[in-house]
Amino acid sequence: MKTWILVRAGDVSQRLRVLLVGRWLVVAGVSLLSLCVLLLASSRPFSSVYSSLHSTTSLAAMATDLNDQRTDLARDYFSQLTRRTLQELQARSPHDGNASFMLSASEPDNTPTPSTVPTFTIVIITVNRKRPRNTNRSLGYVLQSGAALDSLVKNDPMFLDSRLFVCNVDPHPANHEDAVLLKHYLPYVERYGGSVVPALSRLPVPGSEQLYRDVKLPNTFDRERSDYTFCLQAALAFPSQYYLVFQDDALPHPHFPAVLDLSLAKLTKAQQCLKDQSSSGQFLTGLFQSYPTCLSEHPPYMSHSLPSNPRLISPTPNSTFGYLKFHFPERWQGFALEQQRLLDLLSMGCVGGGVALIIEALVAWRRKAGWEPSRTVLCVGVVLTLVVVLLVGRQTVNELRRVSTSLYRLQSPPDCCIPAMLYPAPVMPQLVTWLADSPGHSKVDLRVSDFFKHHDLPSYSIEPNVVRHVGMVTSLSKADRKPVEEFVLFR
Question: Which candidate, 9, 273, 289, 455, has a CA 20 to 30 Å from the CA of 360?
Answer without folding.
Answer: 9
